[in-house]
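Request:
You are asked to prepare a plain-text protein record giving the amino acid sequence and the C-alpha cells, at your earliest convenience.
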Amino acid sequence: MISTTRRQRDSSLHLDNQLCFALYSASLATTKLYKPLLDPLGLTYPQYLVMLVLWEQDDRMVSELGERLYLDSGTLTPLLKRMEAAGWLHRLRDAADERRVRVHLTLAGRALREQARGIPACLSQQVGGTLAELEALTRQLQQLRGQMMAPQPTPASSER
C-alpha cells in the first residue's frame, strides 16, 4: 500500500496538476477561440495584440510594443513587416534617433478597429461567465504574471 505522502508526492508530477500546463493549454484554447473571429479581418492573434496596443495609443516605438507585449525584437520585427505589407501600419525611423523605429497606424489600421469592436463580446459569450467574472479572472492572471516576473531571491543553498 502506498502512503498518502508518497501518493501526494507522486501526483505532484501529474500533467494535470501542473500550473504551467494549465496556462499553456488555456493559451492554446484562447488562440483557437480567437481565430474564427480574426480571420474575417485578416489578422492573426499576435497581429491582433499589436493592433490592440496601437489602438490604445498610436505612434509607439518598436521597443515599447515589445515591452507591452512581452515580445523580443526578433519576434516582433517580422510581425510588424507583415502588418506593414498588409497596409495596417507604417514603420519609420525616429527623427531624433535613427536607431529607434516608430510605428504608426494607417487609415486602414485605424478602420480595422471598428471591424474588431465586437470581438471581446463574442469571446465572452463563447467562454461563458459574466463580464465581472472574466474581469476578475483577468486581474488574477495579471497578478500571477506579475509575481512570476518579479525578481526571485537566490537561495543561499540548494537542497537536493
Q: What stands out?
A: The first strand starts at residue 60 and ends at 61. The beta strands are 60-61, 89-93, 101-105. The radius of gyration is 21 Å. Helices lie at 4-11, 19-38, 45-56, 62-69, 73-85, 107-116, 119-127, 131-149.
